[in-house]
Amino acid sequence: MEREKVTLTGAPETLLATLYGRALDSRAPRSVLHDEAAARAVERIDYDFRRTGITATTAAGVALRGRQLDAWTREFLDAHPEATVLHLACGLDTRTQRLATGPSVRWIDLDHPDVVALRERLLPPPAGDYRLVGASVTDDRWLQAVPADRPTVAVFEGLTMYLREEDGRRLIERITGRFPGGQLLFDCYGTIGIRLQKLVTAVRNSGATLHWGIDDPRELEAWHDGLVLLDALRSVDMPGLDLLPRAGRVEMRVLALLPKLRDVGRILRYRF
Ligand SMILES: C[S@@+](CC[C@H](N)C(=O)[O-])C[C@H]1O[C@@H](n2cnc3c(N)ncnc32)[C@H](O)[C@@H]1O
């Protein structure tokens, strides 16, 4: 089969790092996420994946973050079987396939138009009530096209750090202002992570710039009446870190002891 030449740059290029992380994890002896679709997609892409700098440890880290966000999404859908999922900055993530949602779930995958075009070539669309939208999350129009009739969970993994805070805030205000209720599930960098961004190989090599760091997740509660932080998990405390290779486990234990560095990344869950 002919491989797809990929020429993305900047933030869109970094989706190849997280995809590759899930692909490597699926081949690991103690795979976290078992995302075989990621491995198949990687085989179809003509790209030098060494540019991502992904190692066995960071691959397991990406997979653990994905597993946590999958688990929170599943919990939401168990409680609200008729719901809308906004999977923003989806890249080539096959979250909808991993969760195998039924026809009562309206699922929207969204990313930049060039990413969506690549996704259409590489990943078959799932059955059911599914839409793939090519737009920027900062654009107002796509959200107006989503019916506001159901509880809504917005999942955005690997997105907030690429946004400017004012754009992130507007996105959160627009989602929480439109739907009758729901949850926001996303990861963030702390400002220390933004300062150290050049140490992240995939960011450096793609030429992407990270802008928005969140040190106090409670501050966002003021952005919408009724927005409440439910969970703030530090990356260095994520469940399942025992699945990291030994060197990664040691690294995480050391980071967890360092007051500034332990806040380098978090996974957040809010309800509204
Ligand atoms: C690190 S990748 C994460 C992709 C996917 N969520 C994953 O975990 O594999 C960052 C993604 O954010 C997307 N992105 C960045 N800024 C965006 C914006 N303003 N609107 C839509 N997507 C955006 C990029 O195109 C890219 O797919």
From TrEMBL:
* This protein's name: Class I SAM-dependent methyltransferase
**GO-annotated biological processes:** methylation
Lineage of the source organism?
Bacteria, Bacillati, Actinomycetota, Actinomycetes, Pseudonocardiales
User: Pfam families attached here?
Assistant: LCM
Which keywords does UniProt give here? Methyltransferase, Transferase
Does this UniProt record's set of keywords contain Transferase? yes
State the Gene Ontology terms under molecular function: methyltransferase activity
| PANTHER family from the UniProt entry | S-ADENOSYL-L-METHIONINE-DEPENDENT METHYLTRANSFERASE YKTD-RELATED (PTHR43619), S-ADENOSYL-L-METHIONINE-DEPENDENT METHYLTRANSFERASES SUPERFAMILY PROTEIN (PTHR43619:SF2)
